[in-house]
Amino acid sequence: MAQAHESHDTNVYYVPHGSRWPVIASVALFLTMLGFAQWLNEVSWGKPVFFLGLAFLAAILFKWFGDVIRESLRGYYNKQVDTSFRMGMVWFIFSEVMFFAAFFGALFYARQFALPWLQGEGHKVATHAVLWSDFTGGWPSNGPGAIGGTYQTIPAWGLPLLNTLILLTSGVTVTIAHHALKSGHRKQLLLFLGLTVLLGASFLYFQAEEYMHAYKELNLTLGSGIYGSTFFMLTGFHGAHVTLGTIMLAIIWFRCAAGHFNRENHFAFEAVAWYWHFVDVVWLGLFLFVYVL
């Protein structure tokens, strides 16, 4: 590798070799999004192109992350590089916070402003009089046009509560695994990290059950007006993050089993643990504002 050296000097910063993976990954992302867009528009080749792009992207990420893992195991990274990784992960999680803040903001705006204005409250009386003078509905609502028809909401104290307990438990197990890693207890590390992966998979299973129940029996869909769109955008994107987090935890489990980490050098584990705790916190807000209130 160009410019690779096994130096632990904190004044020497490792500069990686020229990589082809970013360009190829961009092509895979383009294929994935193109296929998805065409699939939504019911174009015949959209679905196969989407899955082809997804498989292509997964293969590229496998190779790309493999390069990074090999560089780490060969000792190319020092404390300066470790600090860069930590700062990068912090900014990544911050961007995710802003991502979910936008969807929570849409939910808040619809509930606290848009619907009251359409009912003639506040200083927006003209909105009610001109647009929907006969609208009196409150939250949850699919809007004055009753888009998507009549639907039922999902009770908070069923599967949503169970999934909340599952995620909270997973936050505990990943923390125990982290302490086991720092203490050098390998069996305890693998046990509790494996439990975290199983809890993440259980959460996804129950969320899939909830979605099928909503679509088939409650007529609650993504097309059920503002309530349906905010509900599925928030829970759906959170589910996507849980899926990604579960995959990352599983990969870290295999790396732990292979002995890639020690008490001092295990940032990859810490980064995934940070991400998982972020997913837990987002779900708590989601459970409260989407299901309970």
Automatic annotation (TrEMBL):
Tell me where the transmembrane regions lie. Answer: 21-39, 45-66, 87-110, 157-177, 189-206, 226-254, 274-292
Matching InterPro entries, A to Z? Cyt_c/ubiquinol_Oxase_su3 (IPR024791), Cyt_c_oxase_su3_dom (IPR033945), Cyt_c_oxidase-like_su3 (IPR000298), Cyt_c_oxidase_su3-like_sf (IPR035973), Cyt_c_oxidase_su3_a-hlx (IPR013833)
**UniProt key word Membrane:** yes
Instruction: Please state every residue range assigned to the domain named Heme-copper oxidase subunit III family profile.
Output: 9-293
GO biological process per UniProt: aerobic electron transport chain
Where is the protein situated, by its record's location annotation?
A: Cell membrane; Membrane
Enzyme kind, highest EC tier: translocase
Pfam families of this UniProt entry? Answer: COX3 (PF00510)
Keywords, A to Z, come to:
Membrane, Translocase, Transmembrane, Transmembrane helix
Q: What SUPFAM superfamilies does the entry give?
A: Cytochrome c oxidase subunit III-like (SSF81452)
Q: Which family does it belong to?
A: Belongs to the cytochrome c oxidase subunit 3 family.
**GO cellular component annotations of the record:** plasma membrane
Question: Which CDD domains does the annotation name?
Answer: Cyt_c_Oxidase_III
Q: Which domain of life is it from?
A: Bacteria
Q: How does it sit in the membrane?
A: Multi-pass membrane protein
EC id: 7.1.1.9
Give the originating organism.
Noviluteimonas gilva
What PROSITE patterns does the annotation carry?
COX3 (PS50253)
**GO molecular function term, any single one:** cytochrome-c oxidase activity
Instruction: State what protein this is by name.
Output: cytochrome-c oxidase
